[in-house]
Amino acid sequence: MSTHDNTSHDLEVRDGHTAVDRFEDPGHPEHKPRLGDLDPKANKKAERQVLFLFGISVLGTIGFVIAYFALPPGETPESMRTSNLALGGALAFALLGIGTGAIHWAKALMNDHEKSEERHLQASDAETREAAVNALKDGADDSGISRRGALKGAVVTAVALFPVTIALPLIGNIGEDWDVSKLKHTMWKKGTKLARDPSGRPIKASDVTIGQVFHVIPEDLEEAEHPLDEKAKAVVLLVRLDPRDIKSEQGEGWSYDGIIAFSKICTHVGCPVALYEQQTHHLLCPCHQSTFDVADGARVVFGPAKRPLPQLPITVDAEGYLIAQSDFLEPVGPSFWEREK
């Protein structure tokens, strides 16, 4: 088979087959009018639906304000859960109403004719810029916002009120304690006994066998002014290894007879690191799979975390109870905290 003249026929032979080198632009498909384009009642119904959706957003914002004052977080897990659910649910309705209302408006009420323009150089002449401005005006006319006062009022109200959900928590914290240095220290200090979580019972070195894992809190945690806040910073995972398996520590003499303790707070985003693999001595964070080697100073062996888990220096007292030698000597939690050693 011979090759056709591409100039005249736009055809060529490729791999023994005749192929079209270029196609004519088929143009836009035939426009199919929507029900609202043909039936004024359907158009009015769509308008009411958009009003309803923006109304949901307004109610969601109002509900957020009410929940913020009526359901404070409090100090118990139950009160915190209730507050978070109420605030989160109200915020979801506030955002959902705006989003679905805008989408439904665009799909049901705005002009839906497909249009295309040729691509030109970015620098346009004055005539083209004037045409662009006119196109924007035509788009505003297509949206019907100037003719539909109720819709305009609904969208303006919903969008204007929504920032309250962001500003209110910030305003509400004016006058609160902004001393962030408190977040850089924990309850651990020299002589503080290591206790089981959640019972608070002190742990003796003799209670811990090789391969055993303990979730640990300071013994005097309940005496703190804000126990839950302090626990969130001070939680520790304690493991006993065969001393011969310990490759390195973060400080000399920070473990006791193979018993070693590290912060449970992942250095990536602060999730609890609590999955211990006895054969490899690896600790796994369930949130993003950061993996730490307990036998090697809790260094990162996999995942997005950028630094090892801080080690808590421990020893034993005269009665054989495990005690802290000091607080952590580096910040716990995500790596953006800074503290002098």
Automatic annotation (TrEMBL):
Pfam family, one: QcrA_N
TM stretches of this protein: 50-71, 83-106, 153-172
Subcellular location(s) per record: Cell membrane
Keyword presence, RNA-binding: no
Keywords assigned: 2Fe-2S, Cell membrane, Disulfide bond, Electron transport, Iron, Iron-sulfur, Membrane, Metal-binding, Oxidoreductase, Respiratory chain, Transmembrane, Transmembrane helix, Transport
Keyword Cell membrane: yes
Ranges for region Disordered: 1-41
Signal peptide region: none
GO cellular component assignments: plasma membrane
Stretches assigned to the Rieske domain: 233-323
PROSITE patterns per the UniProt record, alphabetical: RIESKE (PS51296)
GO molecular function terms noted in the UniProt entry: 2 iron, 2 sulfur cluster binding; metal ion binding; monooxygenase activity; oxidoreductase activity, acting on paired donors, with incorporation or reduction of molecular oxygen
Cofactors, names only: [2Fe-2S] cluster
Predominant cellular place of this UniProt entry's protein: membrane
Membrane topology: Multi-pass membrane protein
InterPro entries in alphabetical order: QcrA_N, Rieske_2Fe-2S, Rieske_2Fe-2S_sf, Rieske_Fe-S_prot, Rieske_Fe-S_prot_C
Free-text function comment from the UniProt entry: Iron-sulfur subunit of the cytochrome bc1 complex, an essential component of the respiratory electron transport chain required for ATP synthesis. The bc1 complex catalyzes the oxidation of menaquinol and the reduction of cytochrome c in the respiratory chain. The bc1 complex operates through a Q-cycle mechanism that couples electron transfer to generation of the proton gradient that drives ATP synthesis.
Family (UniProt): Belongs to the Rieske iron-sulfur protein family.
Name of this chain's protein: Cytochrome bc1 complex Rieske iron-sulfur subunit
Organism of provenance: Cellulomonas rhizosphaerae
